[in-house]
Amino acid sequence: MSSYIEKIKSLNEKREAPPLAHIHNYGCQLNVTDGEKLKGLLLNMGYGITEIPEQADLVIFNTCAVRENAEERVFGNLGFLKQYKEKNKEMIICVCGCMTEQSCIVEKIKSSYKYVDIVFGTNAFDKFPSYVYNIIEGQKRVYDTSGPDETIHEGLTQVRSCKFKASVPIMYGCNNFCTYCIVPYVRGRERSRAPKLILDEVRSLVNDGCKEIMLLGQNVNSYGNDLDKDINFPWLLRQINAIEGDFIIRFMSSHPKDASKELIDAIYECEKVGKHLHLPVQSGNDDVLNRMNRKYTAQKYLEIISYAREKMPDFSFSSDILIGFPNETEEEFLDTLDIVKKVRYSNIYSFIYSKRTGTKAALIDDKITYEEKQGRMQRLLDLQREITTEDYKKLVGKKLRVLVEANSKGGEGTLTGKSSEFVIVNFDGDSSLIGTFVNVEVTGARNWAVDGKICTT
Ligand code: SAH
Ligand code: SF4
Ligand code: F3S
To answer: Whole-angstrom Cα distance, residue 188 to residue 190?
Structure first.
């Protein structure tokens, strides 16, 4: 790999100005970290980075396959690139990520988007430089369709956009095969990174001033299943918690089937771990959960919630909810509204089911109309807004420790950040506080956030 990086670098150094590259990430946080690694490779090859695709000599679309609309956006934007390439004939266009692990997508690009130069999957970091070199040398288009590469590529430079918040993948792939989901097909089987490498990475980020570490995996609770028997996710949390420094640890996603009391105990005992859990329930109905192959019941899910809240009364939960799984009935949907009322999430991410070719659910003849699903989505969002607003009102008068993330919508002099419980807090303060922890007293509640004022204790 490094010989190709050097070759491209010396070609690029001969140019008057460094050529520019543009990366567009379409997917989840893991997809973004892949994009950060590709950015690292591009910088090593002598490219500069631009946010404007029209100006770029090399464009990467790092795609997501989880829902149809993500795919449609990619094809729409590829259409624009055609015009740019007509103006800059040397522009190299690359498409990678989860979409390109599906043969039907690769075929579509081959036949309808002939100006795309390189197609490679989710994990071809070692091969990417050679593909770029071959195109620069005038060879024909590259289609890497070797399937999800399950190697863990360590030692790549990850160019992160934020100095005080960093994502750290701890595992890759998914073994769960929820019947609606394409991820296991495009990301391959679960594999865990070595704990030492994760701990070294976190230590170095914290030494560089990072204040929030987000541990990533499709199901972090499976961490270590492929490693020594004493190594599991709660163990990893405790190890990271022991690293010296003032920082907050977050993680996602947690599959409820593996969310154990041991996990909750670790969160409780580790003072650096945020008191919030993203625990995607998807549905509140046992039959739908079974059809989804989720391997838990509403009852088991609620037991974990109660266990956490008994130990930590202010603990907050968020969730992903899938609306309109094929043939979900009104009664089944009502069970989802019911579990939302019981859990009282602080936030939900809800998605209308999107048929993914290759998954089991795609074979079901779905009788429920899209309009009906949209109606359900609206009812769910209305309910959730009510819950969040009511619960946020109860926070008035409380003091929260907040990591300041940015200026809020009011601009200079106004700030926004998140508390340990993942509550969005807006308050007045100087921009120099961005990237630090402050104590804030909650003074008022809005729909999705609270207002506050900085206090000294
Ligand atoms: N591994 C994570 C989820 C990753 S995908 C987990 O299990 O929690 C993020 C979310 O996208 C899922 O939780 C699900 O709600 C949604 N999703 C997955 N497949 C989908 C599909 N076919 N249509 C609509 N939403 C989907
Ligand atoms: Fe998809 Fe289920 Fe795996 Fe999450 S756990 S990535 S929803 S198959
Ligand atoms: Fe999308 Fe792939 Fe992530 S399908 S959600 S980018 S793992």
So the answer is: 7
